[in-house]
Amino acid sequence: MSEFSLPHHHSDELKAERLCDYVNQIDRFETVAGVFKQLADPSRVRIFWLLCHCEECVLNISAMVQMSSPAVSHHLRQLKLGGLIVSRREGKEVYYKAASTEQAQLLHLMIERTMAVACPE
What we know:
12% strand, 6 helices, elongated, 3 strands
């Protein structure tokens, strides 16, 4: 096992070594990037934000975001695969809402805060 050493010594070596170990756990960062990739599309952000505030069916979501049902269904599939939304069936109708997970709640908060900062009224 080689000894850890940075080319320049500007800070605490032990702290730098711990940070280096953590930042090289690439799978963790790939997971986070995958979550952010889910919200890289403005339409998905709008749909996710909407579903954080209500539970709706595809037709109503389509009307609310002014998109076709197939386009909304595509985005819903992506959000569901990412674990950000859940669905339930009632008869022939399927209703969608944000998942009750910490991840979904944090992303909703991030969207709300980012909108407040980037789009002040």
